Amino acid sequence: MEATVVETGTEGKTWGGGHRPLKASYGKMMMWFFIVSDSLTFSGFLAAYGFSRFKFIDSWPIADEVFTHFPFLHGVEAPMYYVAFMTFVLIFSSVTMVLAVDAGHKMQKGKVTLYMFLTILGGIIFIGSQAWEWKTFIKGDYGAVETKGGNILQFLNTEGERVALADFATKLPGAIQSQSESEGIWFETGTSAPTYTFEEVKTGFMANENLLVRTGYLNEHGVPTVLSREESIDKLTNEGLMVVEGANLRHNEYGPPLFADFFFFITGFHGFHVFTGILINIIIFFNVILGTYERRGSYEMVEKVGLYWHFVDLVWVFVFTFFYLV
Amino acid sequence: MAHDNHKLAIFRGAWTFKSNQSKIWGVFIVLSIITIIEVVLGIIRPEFLTDNTFLAMRLLNWVFILLTIVKAYYITWDFMHMRDELPGLRRAVVWTAVFLIAYLVLILLIEGDYIYEVYNNGYIKFDF
């Protein structure tokens, strides 16, 4: 569609407009501008994560011990395998995207359709995996005790294996229990109670001689410190405050609350980008099927949405490094 | 517009492809190998990399960051076709982002380390 064109009479002169010194179309330039500003947003988040991590450098959780699950392999320790799988899915969907752009340059409508479809499929698999990752993270693993100072105490047996709260907490009579609306005359919903109270965990801990406490503080090898039995009892009775199971924005059983906050915020913001990327890809996909770009004589729109999709992949490469590896 | 005149050499010309499609698959293989190295290192955590530090950071973390930047280079240069753009556009995008991000990260990490020192030296009691 031709927009109204205003002639200035200075075309052809150096400062008269109409020059394209960067040899890139308007739409592509604007996509690059957007990508630069969005990458600054993401680096702001990741730098804030680095700031908080340096602030708690000696008590930050080790990602290997937090993300150890793989779907359908319950109870198998699989550190980072699932995140590696997610990374491959996203890189591969980037490959199919760039193949679609390449086919678009050659005006091959059928190939563009196929590769766009595969790209959308990869995006959906990735975002589904991220939802599963969130679910596992929120549900938690072993459970822990939070101290008055906001630190996390985890439990080990003498062989150095993690022990879940359910394995040793003793049920005490008269402990809190969850009620539902059908049981009361006057009912207000509150936060859901943890499965065990702090008193129950403490009693169970005292009764089991072979249990030890592990603090979040890392020793000189970068491994969390394990206390002796006496130190453990002392720490738990004097500083223990509440039971934490899983993760939310205020408490998490893995370490400082900021760890979970940044996890939700950064992977959530990235997941939102993947989600919008899938939506834009679907719109372009239908335009390809309808032959819009065939009639226009150029598949440049595929290239522009491709830039965005690769950017999402690029961000994930950094999130993967700083959340799961470093 | 960079129609059908892609630059087909990577690794500074050491590896030249016959077509743009085979270049895409070549870059995919490079990215996959780097990711596999990262994951294997992340699981094994070799002791000489975790126990030695450079500029107050473990060597392993430097390796991860370096490999990430290599990956970012190939995604930007080959998947986003930065290799085929004019130097002006490339510099406007890459230099702006790199300098601003490097400055932001440097200043925030120094500040975070300072706050850790303040906590650690006992001026503020935060673990009670």
Task: Spell out the key features of this protein.
heterodimer, A: 326 residues, alpha+beta, Four Helix Bundle (Hemerythrin (Met), subunit A), 2 domains, B: 128 residues, mainly alpha, two-stranded antiparallel sheet, 4 helices, Cyt_c_oxidase_su3-like_sf (chain A)
What order do the helices and strands come in, and which of them pair?
The complex is a heterodimer of chains A (326) and B (128).
Chain A: H1 26-55, H2 63-66, H3 81-105, H4 109-139, E1 144-147, E2 152-157, H5 165-168, H6 198-207, E3 211-218, E4 224-226, H7 229-239, E5 240-244, H8 257-290, H9 292-296, H10 300-325
Antiparallel strand pairs in A: 1-2, 1-5, 2-3, 3-4
Helix pairs in contact in A: 1-8, 1-10, 3-4, 3-10, 4-8, 8-10
Chain B: E1 9-10, E2 15-16, H1 20-44, H2 47-51, E3 53-54, E4 57-58, H3 59-79, H4 87-120
Antiparallel strand pairs in B: 1-2, 3-4
Helix pairs in contact in B: 1-3
Description:
Chain A is 55% helix and 8% strand. In chain A, helix 3 (81-105) packs antiparallel against helix 10. Chain A has 326 residues and is an alpha+beta fold. Chain A has helices at residues 26-55, 63-66, 81-105, 109-139, 165-168, 198-207, 229-239, 257-290, 292-296, 300-325, and strands at 144-147, 152-157, 211-218, 224-226, 240-244. Chain A folds into two domains: 42-140 and 259-325, Up-down Bundle (Four Helix Bundle (Hemerythrin (Met), subunit A)), CATH 1.20.120; 144-172 and 193-245, no CATH class. The two termini of chain A are 51 Å apart. In chain A, 36% of the residues are buried. The model of chain A has no long low-confidence stretch (mean pLDDT 88). In chain A, strand 1 (144-147) and strand 2 (152-157) form a beta hairpin. Chain A has a five-stranded antiparallel beta sheet with strand order 4-3-2-1-5. Chain B is mainly alpha-helical and 128 residues long. Chain B folds into two domains: 1-85; 86-128. In chain B, 66% of the residues lie in helices and 6% in strands. In chain B, the strands form two sheets. A two-stranded antiparallel ribbon of chain B has the order 1-2. Chain B is flat, with a radius of gyration of 20 Å. Chain B starts with 8 loop residues before the first strand and ends in an 8-residue tail after the last helix. At the A-B interface, helix 1, helix 3 and helix 10 of A face helix 1, helix 3 and helix 4 of B.
